[in-house]
Specification:
163 residues, alpha+beta, 3 helices
Length: 163
């Protein structure tokens, strides 16, 4: 059995899956890189563990599309109405969230106005690449690095670098 940061990852076993009453699947989530004039992006400071600054985002509700979830989560956490520009990349490392295995589809969006923290965000702010907070939750520092490289070069994230 493989271990990832103290988590046991069980190998796929089709015979067991047919017998399982409670399958264990990753949780689908969305994260949103919100661009707000001057090259800044919106981050929220989390009220709940894991603490730190993070991209706005969260879990997708049953019956909700990725796009609807991204717009909802952005508004819930930043009080901003966003315009989704594109789907950036999907991050799926089992170690990306210390609570459980999540798969995050990341969107790039645009908004105007001043972000105001709401829902499970304690603070909200606009940051530029050279002025990011020290403590960033989850794998969001990596996502931001990929994003800023993409904005500078137009180069997309390579699959071999996605874990």
């Amino acid at each position: 059995m493989e271990k990832v940061e103290n988590k046991e990852i069980k190998p796929y076993n089709n015979k067991m899956d047919k017998k399982m009453d409670n399958p264990r699947n990753p949780f689908p989530t969305v994260d949103i890189i919100i661009e707000c004039g001057g090259g800044g992006i919106v981050l929220i400071k989390r009220k709940n563990p894991p603490y730190g600054w993070a991209l706005p985002g969260g879990f997708i509700d049953h019956g909700e599309s990725l796009e609807d979830a991204a717009e909802r989560e952005a508004e819930e956490e930043t009080s901003l109405k966003v315009t989704l520009l594109e789907q950036f990349f999907t991050y799926s490392s089992p170690a990306r969230d210390p609570r459980h295995h999540t798969i995050a589809t990341v969107f790039i969006a645009r908004a105007s106005g001043t972000p105001r923290a709401a829902d499970d965000a304690a603070e909200a702010g606009i940051f530029v690449e050279g002025g990011l907070p020290e403590e960033i939750a989850f794998d969001h520092r990596r996502i931001l690095s990929d994003y800023f490289r993409f904005r500078k070069t137009g180069e997309r994230v390579k699959l071999e670098n996605s874990n």
